[in-house]
Design goal:
alpha/beta; 2-enoyl-CoA Hydratase, Chain A, domain 1; 2 domains; nine-stranded mixed β-sheet; two-stranded antiparallel sheet; 13 helices; 20% strand; protease; Protease-4; serine-type peptidase activity; hydrolase; serine protease
């Protein structure tokens, strides 16, 4: 190899090293080092929202983004969004903390997985019944489908007049790319142990029998959804089914249908809990997951290799498209 080529390779390597170093320094500069190295022992931190008596606290815990379990850390496509395991840990911690007198869930989600939504619902019921603590819900921009499922058992639900809620129902979807594959000359070979092993496969049309099987699952999950609302809101099953046809409602409409108790903001919900529970100048804290250094370094390394995070999620998206997964999810 000539000297000029070696020189060009050296310059290219130097530029790459400078680029990587610049991105790493930028990520480090934007990180919160106090949270990174000084997190709480249980991995949960409290941000004081309102000064008051620390022996008499209200904990605010956010449900932000699609409710789905993506593992110990968020996936490439939603690193800054909802982390189910972390949320469940925060909810359990607030329930067991003797200084927490009440919990407010700030719900801003279009819903998500059936299992994850049920886990939150069950934990809320456990906190109410075993820990004897009130749980209120403050709805944000969206608290639909699974977002309403997790809110249903709350002692009080407060929505903004413009909140999008409702969307009571279950959905299963897949991507069918059979025609596209034919046009591209792509053939699929499937070896399966039973006739329904590749149900919902995207490389062929679904049969009527397969559709009936999946519809029966959706109907079962929907019945559970109806029961959760009926029990949580003191409504009959018939009343819930009448309004639970999948449509969305504004916060104002939801109040008229008795799906929410009052209209207001997060601050109004805090005041309401103070008054209802007889709390005298409580300290209000917002729960956060403590920042983990290994998570930071992992995220930084990935961002150095691939700038567009969406590219890293393509494989994950394609794999999920063929997974028969029922969702309590509002899609617009």
């Amino acid at each position: 190899m000539s000297g000029k080529r070696w020189l060009a390779l050296g310059i290219a390597a130097l530029l790459l090293a400078v680029s990587i170093g610049f991105q790493f320094v930028t990520n480090m500069a934007s990180a919160n080092f106090e949270n990174m190295f000084g997190g709480s022992n249980d991995g949960i931190e409290e941000e004081i929202m309102q000064e008051g008596q620390p022996q008499e606290k209200i904990a605010v815990i956010d449900i932000e983004g699609v409710i789905q379990d993506t593992g110990n850390t968020p996936s490439f496509m939603n690193q800054s969004m909802y982390n189910h395991r972390q949320f469940m840990k925060m909810l359990e911690s607030a329930g067991e903390n003797p200084n927490i007198n009440g919990i407010i869930l700030r719900v801003n989600t279009p819903g998500g997985g059936v299992v994850e939504s049920a886990e939150i619902h069950d934990k809320v019921k456990e906190i109410q019944e075993e820990n004897g603590k009130p749980v209120y819900v403050s709805m944000g921009n969206t608290a639909a489908s699974g977002g309403y499922y997790v809110a249903a058992p709350a002692d009080k639900i407060v929505a903004h007049p413009a909140t999008v809620t409702g969307s009571i129902g279950v959905i299963m979807q897949s991507v069918n790319y059979a025609e596209l594959a034919d046009e591209l000359g792509i053939e699929f070979t499937t070896i399966k142990s039973g006739p329904f092993k590749d149900i919902m496969s995207g490389n062929r049309e679904m049969t009527e029998e397969e559709e009936d099987i999946l519809q029966s699952l959706v109907d079962d999950f929907y019945s559970d959804f109806v029961n959760v609302i009926a029990n949580g809101r003191g409504m009959s099953e018939e009343e819930v089914r009448e309004i639970g046809d999948g449509r969305v409602y504004s916060g104002k409409q939801a109040e008229e249908l008795d799906l929410v108790d009052e209209l207001g903001s997060l601050e109004d919900t805090i005041t309401l809990m103070e008054e209802d529970q007889g709390l005298n100048n409580p300290q209000v804290v917002r729960y956060h997951g403590a920042f983990a250094l290994n998570q930071f370094l992992g995220t930084s390394a990935r961002s150095l290799i691939v700038n567009d995070a969406e590219l890293l999620g393509i494989k994950e998206l394609l794999m999920e498209s063929e997974t028969p997964r029922a969702m309590y999810l509002y899609t617009d």
